[in-house]
């Protein structure tokens, strides 16, 4: 799968069958978002469902999550049934993944092989400075329902430390 466009232009997702060279294409005219495909984790094992994260980019500004008007701490993911006929903007199921309390918007969402869940990284947005020039962050992998987008659980919590006093060593 290849994704491009958006940011006010037409967003396009193309699925190419390598064995035959057949290309199928889905388009979302004047999409304010840019489609983002996250490698192998974007597909179910059957190859039928493709998960696309909707990244909102404003010309001259950094990418942002969520979209203007969306709830803070929300990431939008569209699930496209690639066995359905290629078509227009109505293609796929749009899910709003909401961050767990106190954590950042989910990022890098991927779909489980069976297509039942989406998993995304989430954590503290701002790193907290601690003594000795270090900063820390916490988070985990948030697991969501691929049917409803509801948070199911946090899997594998983590803490990150960055010792700035050792920079360049």
Structure overview:
The chain is built from no helices and 12 strands. With 169 residues, it is mainly beta. Strands 8, 9, 10, 11 and 12 form a 5-stranded antiparallel β-sheet that branches. Strands 4-5-6-7 form a 4-stranded antiparallel β-sheet, with no helix packed on it. Strands 1-2-3 form a 3-stranded antiparallel β-sheet, with no helix packed on it.
Distance between the termini: 41 Å
Query: Radius of gyration, rounded?
Result: 18 Å
Mean pLDDT: 80
Low-confidence stretches: 63-69
Number of strands: 12
Helix/strand/pairing category: mainly beta
Q: Work out the helicity level.
A: under 10%
Described by strand count, sense and barrel closure, the largest sheet is: 5 strands, antiparallel
Number of helices: 0
Question: What's the arrangement of secondary structure elements?
Answer:
Elements: E1 2-5, E2 11-16, E3 23-28, E4 33-36, E5 49-56, E6 74-81, E7 93-98, E8 107-111, E9 117-123, E10 128-130, E11 134-145, E12 151-163
């Amino acid at each position: 799968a290849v994704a491009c466009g958006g940011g006010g232009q037409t967003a396009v997702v193309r699925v190419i069958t390598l064995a035959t060279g057949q290309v199928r294409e889905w388009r979302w005219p004047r999409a304010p978002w840019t489609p983002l495909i996250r490698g192998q984790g974007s597909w179910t094992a059957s190859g039928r469902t493709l998960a696309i994260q909707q990244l909102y980019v404003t010309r001259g500004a950094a990418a942002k999550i969520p979209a203007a008007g969306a709830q803070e701490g929300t990431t939008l993911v569209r699930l496209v049934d690639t066995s359905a006929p290629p078509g227009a903007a109505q293609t796929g199921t749009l899910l709003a993944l909401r961050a767990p309390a106190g954590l950042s918007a989910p990022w890098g969402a991927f779909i489980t092989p069976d297509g039942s869940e989406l998993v995304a990284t989430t954590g503290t947005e701002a790193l907290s400075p601690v003594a000795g020039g270090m900063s820390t962050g916490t988070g985990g992998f948030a697991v969501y329902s691929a049917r409803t987008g509801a948070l199911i659980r946090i899997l594998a919590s983590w803490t990150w430390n960055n010792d700035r006093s050792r920079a360049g060593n």
